[in-house]
Amino acid sequence: MKLNNALRLSIAAAGAALFLGGCVIVDADEHVRADWSGDRSYGELMGADVSNGIVTARVTSNGCTTKDFIGADVDKTGDNRFSVGFYRERQDYCEAYVPEGVELSWTFEELGIPQEAAVRIRNDISN
């Protein structure tokens, strides 16, 4: 009788191992990537703000996007007037769900813009 119970228990354990040891497949096409085209075009921002000598951009993210992932083109457009266009330098291949994106900020000094300048963002902003 003990052998019979032991045999039943081993068969149940083997079946459970097969059932629980299944394979997980992730379909990458179903995951929205935080990417913009690789040709330095200015991707659409989720939001932007210019105030107190700081330029802030809300960008899409898959969980790893930092300022190191985003480049900025700064152009002087007139007397003490500048425009800034943000582009993605590196793709974010993380798999986190970040529907609100991430907010990244640059000081005017980081961007080479004088403190009292007027700044316009060139990217489209999604609403």
UniProtKB/TrEMBL annotation:
PROSITE patterns for this protein: PROKAR_LIPOPROTEIN
Keyword set, alphabetical order: Signal
Signal peptide residue numbers: 1-28
Protein name (database record): Lipoprotein
Organism per entry: Henriciella algicola
Upper taxonomic lineage: Bacteria, Pseudomonadati, Pseudomonadota, Alphaproteobacteria, Hyphomonadales
